[in-house]
Backbone:
């Protein structure tokens, strides 16, 4: 009995052991399956997050693809007319810019899109050969060329005391206002130290080149073209003033080198709104400064002389003096006098110019009044031309 009891006890112990070992391995399987499930779950979450991020980045990229942005390093640029690649300039020093601006708080605030330049990327601009074509008072201008024929003018501003935020807001406001005779920026970039603006390159150069650089064009600009340029520029400026009056954004730097000439000999106002107004009080005076600038352009158009000549004589003062002394014909560009056009209408336009360059801003007309005055000269011109053509 004892033996059989022992053996049955032994059996039940064995069974228990087997049962327990089975039970343990089941537990293990369960535990491992749990781990695997958690692992899968974590992997799925990680993949989901990565995909979401990629999608976001792609969105940013497609926004960028319609931008043109140029990065130029601070050093490595010299005064000489030179052909460089912006990317090589860029590599000469630690890059100051990246596609994502460090100081402007994000991509969208550092880049501006425009539909005109779809498909072109930042890298393309960096790689393209660039030519320094001028150094103005407020920065340098580069001509950037692409294999497939597209050419851009990139203006690089130095020391423009405007914050990135303000700059971006201003650019958006200007971008909203369109006029066929105002050159819109195609893209722009801003960091605390530097602002870049990209424009379409105008192969015919500026009104300044046309009037004052004999090598530019040997044929003098005919009166009818000068009148047309004056009229279109006045209308474009009046349009911009009206649309941006509330925002207090005048052109701020209107001069003949900022009037570009397109293939049809039409003027295009460039670099609108790139100067900062000191205060609200001066805003109105700044609009009247544009009127002054426009007046000087009229005087340049009619006299063919520089705003300040080699002897330091100021064109506005000179014209005023000559008109006071009634030597009117002396003032006009000789090539205009050689034309069979009406001297009277030329003098009328000159008078509009003189009104615009009055010393006191309040004495100057606004751009709408200027447009009306020029329109009436144009009407006279058209009328007389139609009479001539009938005869
Ligand atoms: N989009 C453009 N296409 C072709 N030429 C241009 C373009 N923009 C400017 N230019 C020309 O490049 C030259 C340099 O221009 P830039 O604007 O740097 O100088 P600026 O107008 O003389 O001075 P500022 O810095 O006061 O504007 C000028 O002769 C100008 O007419």
Residues:
């Amino acid at each position: 009995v004892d033996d059989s009891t022992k053996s049955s006890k032994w059996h039940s112990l064995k069974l228990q052991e087997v049962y327990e070992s089975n039970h343990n391995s089941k537990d293990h399987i369960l535990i491992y399956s749990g781990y695997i499930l958690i692992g899968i779950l974590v992997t799925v979450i990680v993949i989901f997050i990565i995909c979401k991020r990629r999608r976001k980045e792609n969105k940013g990229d497609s926004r960028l693809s319609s931008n043109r942005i140029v990065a130029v390093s601070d050093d490595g640029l010299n005064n000489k007319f030179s052909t460089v690649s912006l990317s090589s300039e860029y590599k000469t020093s630690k890059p100051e810019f990246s596609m994502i601006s460090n100081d402007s708080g994000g991509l969208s605030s550092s880049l501006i899109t425009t539909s005109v330049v779809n498909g072109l990327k930042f890298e393309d601009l960096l790689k393209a050969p660039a030519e320094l074509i001028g150094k103005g008072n407020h920065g340098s201008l580069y001509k950037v060329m692409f294999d497939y024929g597209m050419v851009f003018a990139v203006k690089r501003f130095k020391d423009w005391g405007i914050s990135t935020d303000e700059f971006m807001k201003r650019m958006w406001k200007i971008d909203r206002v369109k006029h066929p005779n105002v050159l819109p920026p195609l893209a722009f970039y801003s960091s605390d130290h530097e602002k870049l603006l990209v424009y379409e390159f105008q192969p015919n150069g500026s009104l300044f080149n046309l009037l004052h650089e004999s090598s530019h064009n040997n044929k003098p600009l005919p009166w009818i073209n000068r009148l047309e340029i004056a009229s279109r520029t006045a209308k474009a400026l009046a349009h911009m003033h009206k649309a941006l009056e509330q925002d207090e954004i005048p052109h701020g730097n209107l001069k003949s080198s900022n009037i570009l000439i397109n293939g049809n000999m039409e003027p295009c106002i460039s670099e609108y709104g790139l100067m900062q107004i000191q205060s609200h009080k001066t805003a109105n005076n700044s609009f009247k400064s544009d009127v002054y600038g426009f007046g000087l352009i009229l005087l340049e158009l009619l006299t063919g002389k520089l705003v300040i000549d080699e002897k330091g004589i100021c064109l506005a003062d000179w014209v005023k003096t000559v008109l006071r002394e009634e030597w009117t014909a002396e003032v006009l560009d000789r090539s205009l006098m050689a034309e069979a056009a009406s001297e009277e209408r030329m003098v009328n336009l000159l008078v509009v110019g003189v009104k615009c360059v009055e010393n006191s801003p309040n004495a100057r007309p606004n751009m709408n009044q200027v447009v009306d005055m020029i329109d009436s000269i144009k009407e006279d011109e058209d009328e007389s031309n139609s009479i001539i053509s009938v005869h």
